[in-house]
Structure formats: C-alpha cells, structure tokens
Amino acid sequence: MDNSQHIILASGSPRRRELLSLLGLPFEVITSEADESTPPDFTPEQIVRSLALRKAEAVVAAAGERNAVIIGSDTIVVLDNTVLGKPVDELDSKSMLTRLQGRNHKVYTGVACIGLPHGKTIVEHRVTSVTMRAMTENEIIAYIATGEPADKAGSYAIQGLGSTLVERIEGCYFNVVGLPLSLLGEMLSEFGITVLNR
Ligand SMILES: Cc1cn([C@H]2C[C@H](O)[C@@H](COP(=O)(O)OP(=O)(O)OP(=O)(O)O)O2)c(=O)[nH]c1=O
User: According to its UniProt record, which residues of this chain constitute the active site (predicted)?
Assistant: First the structure.
C-alpha cells in the first residue's frame, strides 16, 4: 500500500498529538464530545477499550467520505481495583497522589482504529506497571501547586515533573503518557499504513 490514507487523531490531548507526531506521518486532529461514562461492572480493559472506540466513533461523521483511519484513545490509572481518572479538583488530586505514593499501580490505555470508508475496526489495549516513590504530604501539595496533575489520569505526568516521582516502570512508557506507539504502529499496519520502509 502507499500510505495514501489520511490519519485522523480523535483527541484533544496535546500529549497524544506530540506522541503521534513521533511517527513522522501527517495527520489531522478532530475532537469530539464523547460521553465518558461506563457501566460500574466494567473491568479496566473494558473501560479503556470502549472509551477509545467511542472517541473514534464520535468523529466518523465529521471525517466524511474520505479514505481515512481514525484513532481514538483512553487512559486510566488502576490501584487496588480502583479506577483513577482525571481529578475533578485539587482535593481529588491530593487523595489520588496520597494513595499512589510508595506503591505500584497499573496504567491502562485503549486504542481504537476505524478505517473509512468501510468501517474496519480494531481495538487493543496495553498495560504498564508503574512504581511511585514515597512522598511527604508537603511534596504532594507542592506538586499539585505546579498545576501539572490537573488534567492527567491519576494526577501525575510521567513526562513532566512527575518523572521525579516514578521509580520504575515495566512495559511501554508511551502507554503511560497516553498513546502506546509500538501498538499503534502494529495497528496502523493492519490498515496498510507503514511507519518504516515508506
Ligand atoms: C498517567 C498519565 C496520564 N497522562 C494523561 C494522558 C491523557 O491525556 C490523560 C487521560 O485522560 P483521557 O481521558 O485518556 O484523555 P484526554 O481527555 O486528555 O484526551 P482525549 O479524550 O481528547 O483523547 O492523562 C499523562 O499525560 N501522563 C501520565 O503520566
């Protein structure tokens, strides 16, 4: 195939935009207002897979009749079977970071690709294990004051100041930031889009 397919990133996340840029393929961003609620009995993988798909589906109409691949993605943090999404306020960030500090948790990211005009759909997810160092209450307060936790699942950003809080990870780093690139590369190849050997 000849990479003639248009790529559409269905995301308002500046992190996902930066990560997708790393692949060196041209793409367009179309954002949507997908409903992000899921049934209470959903497992973490069901949550990220269904929300990734919902985000991609939400821009199908806006994509029109083009020959395109739409990418949707969703990231959550899971600690002791509790799902930590984006914090609603600073108090919520404090409670998340207090729970996460000194412990291991898992970051789940779902990725959905929809190929147009035919609608071929692939949904996958990755899990990365993250160990955070112990933090004092003052450190947590100081970190929240930087503003970084505000729009991040689990209230931290491994790619920012949060890097100083993470002791080790097992699995894909990019999965933690919000878009697992090795997985995405494999998924795009299913649509005839190759990152290498172009
Ligand atoms: C754990 C972690 C999350 N995050 C971010 C990635 C996601 O942007 C965000 C999780 O929220 P999401 O709901 O997955 O995504 P979003 O609302 O930011 O963007 P969109 O739905 O439009 O695609 O948390 C980091 O940037 N760094 C991290 O270390």
Answer: 74 (proton acceptor)
**Which residue's CA is the closest to the ligand 1 atom numbered 7?**
178
Asked if residues 65 and 122 have their Cβ atoms less than 8 Å apart, the reply is: no
Range of the domain at 133: 6-189
* Ligand 1 proximity of 158 Cβ (cutoff 6 Å): yes
Asked if residue 1 belongs to a domain, the reply is no
Percent of the chain residues past pLDDT 70, beyond the cut? 97
The 8-class DSSP code of residue 171 comes to S
Does 44 map to a domain?
yes
**What ipTM, to 2 d.p.?**
0.97
* Overall domain count for the chain: 1
By the 8 A CB rule, do 147 and 132 touch? Answer: no
- 74 Cβ below 6 A of ligand 1: yes
Residue among 135, 133, 162 at smallest CA distance from 147: 162
Where do we find the tokens 């954002």? 31
Domain annotation covers residue 194? no
Tell me the per-residue pLDDT of 9-19, one tens digit each, with 9 for 90 and over.
999 999 999 99
**Looking at 74, 80, 92, 151, which residue is catalytic?**
74
| 74 catalytic residue (yes or no) | yes
- Shortest-distance Cα residue to atom 5 of ligand 1: 152
Nearest-CA neighbor of 30 among 44, 43, 45, 20? 20
Query: What's 27's domain CATH number?
Result: 3.90.950.10
Report yes or no on 175 lying in a domain.
yes
